[in-house]
Design brief:
The structure holds two protein chains of two kinds. Chain A is an alpha+beta fold. Chain A is built from four helices and six strands, in the order βαααβββββα. In chain A, strands 2-3-4-5-6 form a five-stranded antiparallel β-sheet. In chain A, strand 4 and strand 5 (102-109) form a beta hairpin. In chain A, helix 2 packs antiparallel against helix 3 (49-64) and helix 3 crosses helix 4. Helix content of chain A is 36%, strand content 23%. Chain A is globular, with a radius of gyration of 16 Å. Chain B is of the alpha+beta class. Chain B contains four helices and eight strands; from the N terminus they run ββββαβαβαβαβ. The radius of gyration of chain B is 15 Å and the shape is globular. Classes of the chains: A alpha+beta, B alpha+beta. Chain A binds chain B through residues 1-4, 6, 9-10, 12-17, 21-23, 28, 31-32, 35, 38-44, 72-78, 82, 84, 86, 91, 93, 106, 108, 110, 116, and chain B through 19, 21-22, 24-31, 36-38, 63-67, 117-118, 121-122, 124-125, 128, 131-132, 135, 137-142. Strand 1 of chain A pairs antiparallel with strand 8 (138-140) of chain B.
Chain lengths: 145, 143
Amino acid sequence: LEVASISMLQQDLEMAATAPCPLAISVQLADIARLEDGWLDGEGAAYAPHVLARAREVFESLLSLGGIAMPYVYPTPEGEFRAEWNHPDRDVVVTLNAPGRRLRLLAVESVGNIPTRRESFDADQAGVKMLASTLEALLKAEVGP
Amino acid sequence: VRILDALTDEKELLLRQVNPSFIRAGRPSSKVFEPKAKDEGKLSIVLERKRQAQAAYEFFIKIPKCRSVGILAISVGDCLSEELPAHHAPLSEAEDGLEDDAHGIIDFSQTEAEFHEEKAIALHRAAMARGYVFQPVVTKAAE
């Protein structure tokens, strides 16, 4: 066995705070699929297979449009899917609601006085395309939108 | 929970446990810093001056159903920058089912719920810049 030092873990955190997620959407959702009832200190329900399948469909559709780095995808106690992107100037979060019908975008600037951006999109083909276009601009831009 | 006066020392550190499900490829989610619906806007933290990080971790994982992969920290100043007061809020066995004099809260309840996510993101950014203040030693199979 090899013991990883705290400094090595700290380096991992620094990398994770700046780089795209190295895991495919299917791998990230497989992790979420393994959650059991009570996964969050006794709260939070397990995700149903059809909900996971819908999330995979939506996120793969979004990423297939190109130009968007791989997000870090997390479960939430509300049964949503939360995708987070690293960017030096802003935090970008997209939440897919539990039925998989709506996508909520939140972009919070870390510098300057640029207001937080909040938008909502249908999780259909047209909505996903509009979201992809918005995300591409937010994740590439060096300054606010 | 007994909520005492607001904390005022901006350098004071507040500790937050990281649930393993909020880690993806080593990156913690900003959800770590967002109160759940049942929390009524009160995010639990540990006052570092009352219980240091390793002891806080060991205390927490002994509570049934509670798991942690480490501890992130924010300061009272980080909270005040987001207009979030922090309080010492000791728990008692009689009222809360757990005795914990090091317990505190960050009070989101004066902020409209639609802004909680945004405030949590700001706290997450501050915590990520500071790095883990404690992680249990991790072992992994040698290649």
